[in-house]
Design goal:
The protein is an alpha+beta fold. It has four helices and eight strands; from the N terminus they run H-H-E-E-E-E-E-H-H-E-E-E. The protein binds a DNA duplex (13 and 13 nucleotides) through strand 3, strand 4 and helix 4.
Length: about 190
DNA sequence: AGGAAGATCTACT
DNA sequence: GTAGATCTTCCTA
């Protein structure tokens, strides 16, 4: 995925990321997972967005170049986002769930769980399985040799469902969560 | 100093 | 399935 893929409306990017594969290079190993659930967040007009109250140190990546990793913490969990927005706008896509592909044993160890469906079926779980922390904030995912990249999947046909965003207290009147309805690996 | 936050786990019915 | 405890930052007072 090159930078132009991320330089679009966050909702379009969130939808099109479904089925793509995240590859994490860690300790000489490759962990990977297919994206099965995402949510789109905007800038100052979105009360659920980290960028709602303007640019701060911790959210500055959202205001910068699309295609970079944006990580922040909620309730003690790091959540993985990819910056996505039109030129001069603000936004990001939260990666909410993955279907584990390569490196399942490594993920089981990090998660201390055996059930494959418990490895990455939620934004906090996925970060634990893939070793996502603040250290990755700002990293460019469009670089092929990066510690974390996104590549096109097999291109299988899949049915895309939508809903309101999960857990947000002040949502927009619009479906901004996208997920593969057939997948067993979504967060619910 | 105190509280909220895009979640998860555990221990119950 | 639901309730309550807990996790770690950053924001606001």
């Amino acid at each position: 995925m090159d930078r132009s893929f991320y330089t679009r409306d966050p909702a379009a990017v969130a939808r099109d990321l479904l089925g793509k594969v995240i590859v994490r290079r860690l300790e000489g190993e490759s962990l990977s997972g297919r994206i099965v659930e995402t949510e789109a967040y905007f800038g100052g007009l979105d009360p659920a967005s980290r960028a709602f109250r303007g640019r701060k140190n911790y959210n500055s990546v959202m205001f910068e170049q699309p295609g970079r990793i944006f990580v922040y913490m909620v309730h003690g969990w790091w959540l993985l986002n990819i910056v996505a927005h039109l030129q001069d706008e603000v936004g990001a896509v939260l990666i909410r769930a993955l279907e584990p592909l390569e490196g399942v044993e490594h993920m089981e160890r990090r998660r201390e769980k055996r059930d494959v469906r418990e490895l990455a079926s939620g934004p906090g779980k996925l970060s634990q399985a893939f070793a996502v922390t603040k250290a990755l904030n700002g990293l460019d995912v469009t670089q092929g040799d990066s510690e974390l990249t996104v590549v096109a999947g097999e291109g299988e046909p899949c049915t895309i469902s939508t809903s309101r965003r999960i857990g947000v207290t002040k949502d927009l009147p619009r479906d901004l969560r996208f997920y593969l309805g057939d997948s067993e690996f979504t967060s619910r």
